[in-house]
Amino acid sequence: MNAQKASTLLEKAAQALRGHGLMVSVQKQEGSEGRWRSATCLGVRKDRCGTDYAAEVRCKVTSDSLGAMVTQLRQPVDVGDPPLLLITDHVTRPVAHRLREQEQQFADAAGNAYLEARGLFVYVSGRKPDDRRNSVRTAKSFTATRLKVLFALICDSELVAAPYRVLAGAADVSPRTLPEVLADLQRDGTLTVVDRRRRFNASKRLLDDWAQAYALGLRGSTLSGRYRAAGFASWADWPLNPALARWGGEPAATLLACDLQPSVLTLYADKLSARLVAQQKLTAAGPVAYQNLLEVRKPFWGRSLSLIGQRDTVPPALVYADLLATGNPRCLEAARAIYDVRLARLFPEA
After folding, report:
1. Residue 196's CB: how many other CB atoms inside 10 A?
2. Which of 183, 184, 245, 279 fits 269 for a cystine, CB–CB 3.0-4.6 Å?
3. pTM of the model
4. How far is CA 242 from CA 127, 220, 257, 261, 307, in A?
5. pLDDT one-digit tens code per residue, 136-162
């Protein structure tokens, strides 16, 4: 499994754990070789209890491979190292039962999990990858097309009444896909039609559903590169062309007046300019790098949405979603501030 697929799977599993009411943070451990076998630390908390895990990502776990895999995971570790948490795509009920019998903790992208630490116990099995008991709508809701169309409507609700070609251009989707998507949104109440005019029913629940579905279904594919930035501390002074590159995540939250010191820089751009690479001495970072890290993500929307937001940031709804996806307590607090100041009027709580 390559680094990007592993990162996407880890993000999905972390998001599924948050659906169980847990606070989950993901951190890359700098210089972890020789200390931990895993380069990623997963912090799991419930109230004041919880623990840190070293995440071990495996693409697939079956009954036939389980014995050898558990044996491998239980190789001797140094005293003080965190326990290994198996992260995988899906764990069937029989495999979950066997993992629990062997006291191998795990979490999968479907929401199945076995966690046992001081003051913390979670055991969920039997969920399927498209289990409708999950808190976020599944099936059609997880398609990239629906996520893109919803994002366009979240950024500009007036697009709901626009011709198909205009809405499709803003969402960067084919106009031929819109009738099915809009019909589906009408069936679940996101859209209503009055006198042949479509109306967008915005709410905080819709915003949160989109943010979680984005984290699970689209965000992983937007990551195009990770870089070490020698000029990390002076990121606010980087010369960006807003038509080509905009801040997201933590730096965007800071620019939107949140009291947040970025630990990771997120930049949405199709590609980095040669000038920026040279000025900031950007160098490619491997999957282990964490400090002074710049993540570059590809925009997934059309040109007509490109300038919505502040001068140097992506739209507030995407900043909100990026912050929630981290699971970091500081970022969750900043996300709430972004909602209160920038989004509450447009997406009221029920």
Report:
1. 5
2. 245
3. 0.66
4. 43, 23, 18, 22, 8
5. 444 344 589 999 999 999 999 999 999
